[in-house]
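Async update (no meeting this week)

Hi team, since we skipped the sync, here's where things stand on the single-chain job. The sequence we agreed to prioritize is pasted below, unchanged from the tracker. I ran it this morning and attached the output directly underneath so nobody has to dig for it. Comments welcome in thread, and please keep replies under the output.
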Amino acid sequence: MPRILFLALAAALLPSAGVAAHAPDADTAAQEDAAARTLGEEASIVFPGDSSIRNWRADRDRGLWIQDRRGNWYYGSFLGSCRDIDFAHAIGVETRGTARLDRFSTIIVRGERCPLHSFVTSEGPPSKKVRKGERSGSKVPETLP
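Output:
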């Protein structure tokens, strides 16, 4: 009996070893795909409820960046402002039966409905350092001759 269990365990581990060997190729393909995308085009993510969304970041109350499972970033701007999204730990996505996150979807934040105006391909969100500079309005002082 233990011998059969060992063979079953070994057989179960073989496919994962093959996946690990091909992981760099998948990463390279995802990077090439991201480089080939045209930024600013209307886009969609298919089946957002099926773990298709890897990460998201709020852009104050104006919009949000969403990363799909392949590592591609998108920016969704709201039709109006969306209170509390900057402080939310989780969001919901209402697709109205289409099973795709696009500009016709609505983001749910703490019970508030925030309809999207657009949903476009984008670069990732800016770093915290860049955002701090934007908020303070500070610029690098020019040196005098």
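Quick observations from my side:
Helices lie at 2-36, 48-52, 128-136.
The chain has three helices and eight strands.
Reply here if anything looks off.
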